[in-house]
Amino acid sequence: MAQASTISKQTPFVWEGKDKKGNKVRGKSIAANEQALRADLRRQGVVPTRIKKQSAALGAGKKPTPEDIAIFFRQLATMLTAGIPLVQAFEIVGAGHDKPAVQKLILDIKAQVESGQTLHEALRKHPMYFDDLSVNLVEAGEQAGALENLLDKIATYKEKTEAIKKKIKKALFYPAAVMVVAVIVTVILLIFVIPQFESLFKGFGADLPAFTQFVIDLSKFVQDQGWLLAIATGGAIYAFVYFHKRSRKMREAVDRAMLKFPIIGPILLKAAIARYARTLSTTFAAGVPLVEALNSVAGATGNIVYETAVLRMKDEVATGVRLQRAMENTALFPNMVNQMIAVGEESGSLDQMAGKVADFYELEVDAAVDSMSSLLEPLIMAILGVLVGGLVIAMYLPIFKLGAVV
Length: 406
Hints:
Helix content is about 75%, strand content about 5%. It is mainly α. A hairpin with a 5-residue loop joins β1 and β2. α1 packs antiparallel against α5, α9 crosses α10 (about 250-260) and α14 (about 325-330) runs antiparallel to α15 (about 335-345).
């Protein structure tokens, strides 16, 4: 704990200097203070000519992201494959990162490794950034003497899963953002535009069409009770988010409903299968026993319905049931997936077949998101046209009626 505290107080610096041959060199380092950095540079044969604290660039204070962790694993695997010692690899990767928060995280792990801890023990002390799956795979790599291979597999796994997450976010964000804009535009029209027409219609001295009267009444309601409606909507959203985080039953109900939702449902289903297969392939290839691997796979599916099913599969496999049979019993996996897993079990290449399933469904998610975007564009335009166009027609109906009478 003392080491972690010391590292967290260190400061990032950028420096310039000359090496033993007189060549100009520059770089980035983290040190407790400028004097400590000067001493460290001199030990490396560099005479510093200019040292200053690294300015806080845009986003520099942000916490490490999953993308940062994936890049970290990729860089570390590359360094070890090139024969660079682990501690030196940490120094290079940490000093070369633009985010001070990532630099501190990496050099914290480096300090713990230097103190005699294994890499997986050092990573386990940062559960916010390194999940159990990654830590267990690193431990397996250390025990097997193939750490660089396992780090490469972890990097590939994280890159693939993050790509899937981005696709899902894109699929959900686009229609949600457009609908929010549509609601905002409608509210603005009801509050600011419709009242202007209402004052105009009062001088007509005639009954308004039913549609027009309905829109005017709706406008009055939004103006008079809009704040209550906003509070109720905000409260409902807050309550949903609050209970969704704390109630597993609610999350399962929502996830199950989302899987059956038109357009979005098939994408979420394919994404869950892709994550399942990718995690199974990565863990099994690392030599993790199947029952233990399924425990990690369950939490990586990203959907509680599949998580519960995989945990049930794990119990069945532990009693001697074949994985393919356990998958069939859940009725959640397509027949093609079940058959490919069966072939993998029979041929002793379960990791390879699971990897092929993951590749196939990752491509399916890509194609589904792209086709959904092209399908939703005209649908969203139609919804916007009905909302905005309906309000416009409602306001012009009395004018058209007056023109007909004249």
